[in-house]
Amino acid sequence: MPSIQALARFLETPEAAEKLSVLYGNQPQRLAAMQARWLNLVRSFSVRFPAGGADVMLISTPGRTEVGGNHTDHNAGRVLAAAVDLDLIAAAERTGDGIVTVYSEGYPAVRIDTRSLEPEEEERLSTAALIRGICARMQELGWKIGGFNAVLTSDVPKGSGLSSSAAFEVEIASILNHLYNDGKLEPLQNALISQYAENNYFGKPCGLMDQTTCAVGGFVTIDFKDAHNPLVHKVGYDFSSSGYSLVIVEAGGDHADLTDEYSAVTGEMKSVAHALGGRVLRDASLEQMMAALPELHHKVNDRALLRAFHFYADNRRVGEQVQALEAGQFRRFLDLVNESGRSSWMLLQNCYSTNRPTHQGIPLALAVTAQLLGERGACRVHGGGFAGTIQAFVPTDMLEGYVVQMEAIFGQGTCYPVMVRTAGSVKLDLI
Question: CATH number for the domain including 22?
Fold first, then answer.
């Protein structure tokens, strides 16, 4: 691995921009900004660890966006997600003392001892818990671990639904993978380790979609029919050829008081499954539900039935979206995105909270987007819903005007135009 000084010198050359284009595309202004960002990172490493820097590795892990399968994963359904060109980047160096020291821009340093990896109650919901959990799980599975020094910085906005936390987890596992395991850890293994740390050390019962997409890159479809052995398929489609940009729009609202809303989606879908004799909706078919509707109507509430209709339709749509992308039928793909959006709004009913019915930022953003883009674009609620963000596919020639008009309504900096990034979590070999 090169020294920190050699990396800094290379990042000042025109050749560095060409190397970085694999992650960020070929737009000169974007590449110049990313070149300066990486240069600032390695310089920060020199300041944080002045005694080190002889052998430094660079790692990049993308954020991710959900594209299809809204609230399907928790009922053993299918999802479609995509890595984006907003990422978390790190400079890291192996140490011999077993201590992990991580500086994340804007946060205090975090240190853990890899010789003590039992969960610590006082660390729950902390960065230290995630790092300790990743180290523990890797060691338990037979992978090598050890100390390292790292400096991280991220341009994945927090609270945007682009999975900044999953990117961090995958990044830490990638650092250990490349420093101690010659890069032999497969992306899905990385995702499973990251999920384990979040579930068992951090204390959040997350699924696997976010970590898998960050680790694998590109468009990724995941089938959760067997939760212990999900089927992961990287979709063969080059989004840069589509003539579209993907825009995440912050429509406002606070997720803090929405736990009951999220729980109700899962619980109501499963109530229909239980009434049909299954554990989750994937255990029964739409045809079975239709045949049992007269009886179901007296066993479960109406909203549960509507949400079950959404599950079956969006679960089917994921497969159709994948087929459209791999056949190069991007217009068909966009039509399916719009269908998913309408289903989430009408059947799943996760576009605003019933506790705050006058606060409807997501429906407003969707209505304005549909008006601005007409038949040329597509939009849907992004992620869990009830508050937060929408997703829009915007023709490149309409992008600037769309962002200006949406930010005039929702505020400066509320729109994040991104591209789908082919690479997942990778070690960056500049020199």
Answer: 3.30.230.10
Confidence of residue 431 (pLDDT cuts 50, 70, 90): confident
Domain that includes residue 111, residue range: 4-236+421-427
Q: Are residues 270 and 161 in the same domain?
A: no
Least confident of 70-74, 197-201, 246-250, 383-387: 383-387
Q: How far apart are CA 237 and CA 234, in angstroms?
A: 9
Cα distances (Å, whole numbers) of residue 101 to 39, 127, 130, 154, 387: 20, 11, 13, 17, 35
The structural domain count of the chain equals: 2
* pLDDT per residue as tens digits for the range 331-375: 999 999 999 999 999 999 999 998 888 999 999 999 999 999 999
Dihedral, 211, 183, 118, 159 alpha carbons, nearest 10: -30
User: How far is 166 from 254, CA to CA, in rounded Å?
Assistant: 20
- Determine the Cα–Cα distance for residues 89 and 111; give it in Å rounded to an integer: 19
| Single pTM value for the model | 0.91
Are 11 and 64 in a shared domain? yes
The CA distance from 364 to 370, in Å, is 10
Helix, coil or strand: residue 92: strand
Say yes or no: 217 and 249 in one domain. no
Same domain? For 130 and 162 the reply is yes
